[in-house]
Amino acid sequence: MANGKIKTAVITGGHPYDVAGFQSMLRSLPEIEACPQNMWDFITDPARGRGDYEALLFYNMHLRTPAEEDGKFEAAMKEMLESLGDGDQGIFLLHHALMAFPGWPLWRELSGMRQRGNVPVAFGQTVRIDVADTAHPITSTLKPWDIVDETYDIDDADGDSRILLTTDHPRSMKTVAWTRTFGEARVFCYQGGHDDQAYSNPGFRSVVGRGIRWLAGRL
């Protein structure tokens, strides 16, 4: 596995998105073998276990905290998500996945964000992205760039996070991308990624690709 493309589960659900544009972005990353799938398909796939992937990219926005008494799907989702961090499999929270499970302490610890409910958002914003950490492998070769994207006006990532990208946009959180650890796993969080205006941006694609490579220990 380590000598080929990085097999990455891309887990969706709970939020609409531009499917064709998003998958076009994923196909543009030459070192990544992305496998987009709904959360339920990921949990129940009879041909492939979670361990077949080097990285899990969450692009979902389920809002209710899963509970075993709610049914088979919720119980299976709860069990899977509670096992995150048990090994070194990389975890990527992209865009609205940061807002998933707003009442669940587990997701708050995973994301490093204290406030994640009732988020003020602004669509179609031109955002200047600045590189805050030139020593980290994800951002070491990046230069500042502009992107049209959705912003979240919410609390920044907490002090246990290593901040990689920032913005001074007045309608956005300041921290845009950061890393942290969750159990034994590397975690990468990136706030951008609403629609094809973001997906097609070279800076966005570079960050997503480099983030996955870093999560898989390939960067």
Question: Which terms summarize this structure?
Answer:
globular, alpha/beta, 219 residues
Low-confidence stretches: none
Number of strand segments: 9
- Percentage of residues in strands: 25-35%
Query: Mean pLDDT, nearest integer?
Result: 95
Span between N and C termini? Answer: 15 Å
SSE topology:
Elements: E1 6-13, H1 19-27, E2 32-38, H2 39-44, E3 55-60, H3 72-82, E4 90-94, H4 105-111, E5 121-131, E6 145-152, E7 162-166, E8 175-182, E9 185-190, H5 196-199, H6 202-215
Parallel strand pairs: 1-2, 1-3, 3-4, 4-9
Antiparallel strand pairs: 5-6, 5-7, 7-8, 8-9
Describe this structure in words.
The chain has 219 residues and is an alpha/beta fold. It has a 9-stranded mixed sheet. It is globular, with a radius of gyration of 16 Å. The model has no long low-confidence stretch (mean pLDDT 95).
Short description:
The protein has 219 residues and is α/β, with parallel strands linked by helices.
